[in-house]
Amino acid sequence: MNPVTIHDRTTPAATVLPRTAPRRLQGLMLPGTPVVGGYTSDGQPAGPVFYWSDTRFPHDFESGLHHHEGLEIVSFILNGSASHYDGVTGQWVDLHAGDAEIIRSGSGIGHSELAAAGARVLSIWFDPGYDAAIRRRPSHTHHPAASFTARPAGDALVTDLIGGAGPIRARTAGLSFRRITARAGSSTDLDLGSGRFTLAYLTGGAATINGAHAADGDALSLNGARWMTVRVTVPIDLFEVSVLVNSPHRPVWQH
Asked: What would be the CATH architecture of the domain defined by 20-145?
């Protein structure tokens, strides 16, 4: 795709990432994942973004107690409700639409998830630097919807989840995670910052983003662009994740 001009500067156009084939697994629906194992679905390195899923639960589902270490896992409840248990607090936490949680798995944490029928959960895993992470104590934090505040940005509303005014504290260096909503017919320019790798993901609506047309379930790579221009055709719910191009994280496979 040809470059686009934003704020009198030419920048690489956004690329809609290929969707991998959706599949059913133990009663849940797994759509195509834009990032697996630190690589986007078109084979590009995604830095500390390790894995990305948008899961729909047609039936009640329990993951069962299982273990993580090193990675940070951020989950956002798009629809419905879920419950989370972890071995650090020894407690169950109920989550509802608009709530978020972060697992900093550190030296190791066991947890279990219960999702109610009709739930939809966006989950993104980050590698904060495995060598250091596995030497830190694990923790889990729940953030109810009321803890997030939307602010106007052009024609859009932007909610900082991590970075900026966001209440979620992550160990992944330079991580920014934002939610953007906007009405049909609107146009908004957002400053992404310099020296960053950005992924955008639509969980509703349709828009043209830096010259690329995208709809619900599409993920886009913004190729280190400084600006993101969103021209909305159908009211959108958009999540944007931005990390440092020269991230200090050191994946375990580099040993």
From this structure: Sandwich (2.60)
C-alpha angle 215/217/223, rounded to 5°?
80
| Fold entry, domain 148-247 | Jelly Rolls (2.60.120)
What gap in Å lies between CA 56 and CA 62, rounded to an integer?
13
Here the tokens at position 77 are 């409840």
pLDDT tens-digit series, residues 142-186: 999 999 999 999 999 999 999 999 999 999 999 999 999 999 999
